[in-house]
Design goal:
Layout (H helix, E strand, L loop, with lengths): L13 H20 L19 H15 L6 E7 L5 E3 L6 E7 L9 H17 L6 H14 L4 H5 L2 E2 L4 E2 L6 H15 L10 H16 L11 H16 L11 E4 L7 E5 L6 E5 L3 E5 L6 E5 L1
Parallel strand pairs: 1-3
Antiparallel strand pairs: 2-3, 4-5, 6-7, 7-8, 9-10
Helix pairs in contact: 1-4, 2-3, 3-4, 4-6, 6-7
The protein binds zinc ion (2 copies).
């Protein structure tokens, strides 16, 4: 887990974040994702400076192991001086050694956030799910932590004031907000009351705006007027020109169907996998991966 440096903002990793959500649904299935309908409760991972450091860290780790449904896994938490914020040894188990940076001794309230990320590494390791490259794999880990209900802790560990800033994880605060909002839309959750950090809440609101924008892209019926107008123009162009040219900067592509009608491909706003539907006016499609019903005007 990374540590330090200036805090990056915006959505620079959005493509990998979206691929991570799709990969989670593919690897876990709809049913397993829906077993994580309830997030980690703030009271269950609370850690105050008067709690015993080792007993408290073990208690929070046990709570996260329970949340991730890793029944036989045992986390052994230690502290040492290191460059990174935290690290976990991915061995065969059932015991896993998690090392936290010394500075958490004095910042106990963020221990839950660090453990949420490190124990997710164990979860993904056992699942055999990884992305190539360290950076991509860390983005997958943060995204999975958040989508499965523990990542709000990572976002809440983001704090900034006139003299200092702190952020954990590889996603920007806004990207954490984006994944958190995607999750909230699926499970009807409202994470906004859990934040202790005002900056984290602001980032959540920005991420939520971005997440809602995914639901208003053509060919979805909820798309706005200007998006629909552009879509109609691109569709006309696609119908007149074959083979098809790629539509630049659009959230959709037109694809020919062998001998059949034109089809449009776009991302499911929930699981973000590519979906194809025929171009023939109003179409109701159901995403095969996350089962979301999509009202489209193609
Ligand atoms: Zn990591
Ligand atoms: Zn879907």
């Amino acid at each position: 887990m990374a540590n330090g440096g200036p805090v990056e903002h915006g959505f620079p990793h959005l493509e990998t974040v979206r691929a991570a959500v799709t990969a989670l649904y593919r690897r876990l299935s709809y049913d397993t994702v829906h077993r994580f309908a309830v997030s980690v409760a703030p009271a269950d991972v609370a850690f105050c400076d008067s709690d015993d450091l080792y007993l408290g860290a073990q208690r929070v780790a046990r709570e996260l192991v329970r949340h991730y449904r890793l029944p036989d896994a045992r986390m052994i938490v230690g502290f040492r001086e290191m460059r990174h914020a935290a690290n976990v040894e991915l061995a065969a188990g059932p015991e896993y050694f998690v090392e936290l940076n010394e500075r958490f001794r004095a910042h106990r309230r963020d221990i839950g956030a660090a453990l949420a990320h490190e124990i997710m590494h164990v979860f993904l390791h056992r699942l055999g799910l990884s992305f190539p490259g360290t950076r991509e794999n860390e983005i997958l880990t943060d995204t999975a932590t958040t989508y499965l209900g523990a990542g709000w802790l990572l976002l809440d560990a983001y704090r900034e004031d006139a003299v200092s800033s702190q952020k954990l994880g590889y996603l920007t605060p806004e990207e954490f907000g984006y994944v958190l909002a995607k999750r909230a839309l699926v499970f009807g959750e409202d994470p906004s009351t859990w934040f202790t950090s005002a900056q984290a809440y602001t980032a959540y609101v920005r991420g939520r705006e971005r997440a809602r924008l995914d639901e208003r892209q053509p060919p979805l019926s909820a798309a706005g007027w200007s998006g629909r107008r552009r879509y109609a123009r691109d569709r006309r162009h696609a119908q007149d020109h074959r083979p098809l040219a790629v539509v630049a900067d659009a959230p959709y592509d037109f694809v020919p169907d062998a001998g059949g009608p034109l089809r449009v491909a776009f991302s499911c706003p929930t699981c973000l996998q590519r979906i194809r539907v025929p171009v023939r006016g109003r179409v109701r499609a159901r995403c095969g991966l996350c089962r979301t019903v999509l009202e489209c005007d193609t």
